[in-house]
Request: fold
Amino acid sequence: MPNTITPVALGLRERKKLKTKEAIQREALRLFKEQGYAATTIEQIAAAAEISPSTFFNYFPTKEDVVLFDRYDPMIFSMMTSLPASEPLSAVMYGLLDGLAGVMERDHDVILARSKLSLEVPELRARFWEEIEKARDLIASILAARTGRDASDFELRVLAMLFLTATFEAILEWIRRDGRGDMVKLVKQALDLAQIGPRLDELESATRKTR
Amino acid sequence: MPNTITPVALGLRERKKLKTKEAIQREALRLFKEQGYAATTIEQIAAAAEISPSTFFNYFPTKEDVVLFDRYDPMIFSMMTSLPASEPLSAVMYGLLDGLAGVMERDHDVILARSKLSLEVPELRARFWEEIEKARDLIASILAARTGRDASDFELRVLAMLFLTATFEAILEWIRRDGRGDMVKLVKQALDLAQIGPRLDELESATRKTR
DNA sequence: TTGATTTTTCTAGTTACTCCATTTATAATG
DNA sequence: CATTATAAATGGAGTAACTAGAAAAATCAA
Reply:
């Protein structure tokens, strides 16, 4: 069953920690929505989640991270690092997008709330780009493995970043439409505009010729 | 004399303020270099620039902004908003890059210092993207004026962002090479890889046909 | 000089975040 | 089950970025 994002098995302790983490995030997002990001203090979040303020920092290094945290991240990560090398890159890319659609259906509201915050609060918007840069490095390393180039290769990084930028702008547009349109469709439109698919296949075939 | 970036005329008071602002930035950058960004306090910067700590915040809203501040920004801005509509977009784009080369020659070291900081300090790196998003909106509005589309048009924003992303990755690469290579050349390479030029001209001619 | 305005400075907060020591809960072992 | 190891939660004391607002000082206009 490809292109399905499912939780990873964890020990009892780990699961409990994850639950606390999600509780903190849930309460924090609620408070942010009610009274705004800046007006909400760590103390209030801790009180709502029934932990001490110190404990908050055991789970999230900063107040920003409580918004950025995404429980699907590790799954998406493992999914991306175990891609089939048999299909062309563009096909893999579209496959990933279908996986994304699944997540969207399951967690539409939380994703929208987090995305909106990341859009509206400047420091979060800024931090979000950090995450994108991490993703860029991941994608670049995947491209590197497939083409035999170095992961720090300039062109690979540019391509990876073009991919992510197009995706990001699509998400922005989706939020501007208040989460009502089809996000995955918008992403595909942006990727086509940037002609990312052909560019990826080009890269792959060019490398095959050389080696 | 096109493609030359020159200071804008200012009143006496304004010039004095600008001088103070630059002094603060100069001292701050020196201290950051000597003892690191996090280890340098506003108090120290204020002392070095011979102002009170309160005054610091009259000039820069946050510690981060002291790194982000670029005295060429208003010039570049006015340059971009007064582009000739006679030439095709791709030509204008390359023209701008030549202008950039001039600035690089004049202020290579300060630019490198600021860029390095923005690369190495995570919160600055994040903030830098905010600036890029501002630039995106500016470019989108220029494209909008030329094509008769709306400035919030999805495709325009994607294109503008692709342009900036390519440029940004080129600058990153330039810093990774410690400012030794030809930055403008790298930028052109990235833009060609993304095929931004053709894409821009495509957009323009497509619009002409329609109206 | 006088008065208006801008700029700087001071004071007194608030809050995110750090460090470290202590206590409490959980799991592993004999 | 009792003991021990380990990990997680907490408390307290401190730092530094930033805010608001009032007072003082410098600058400019008439």
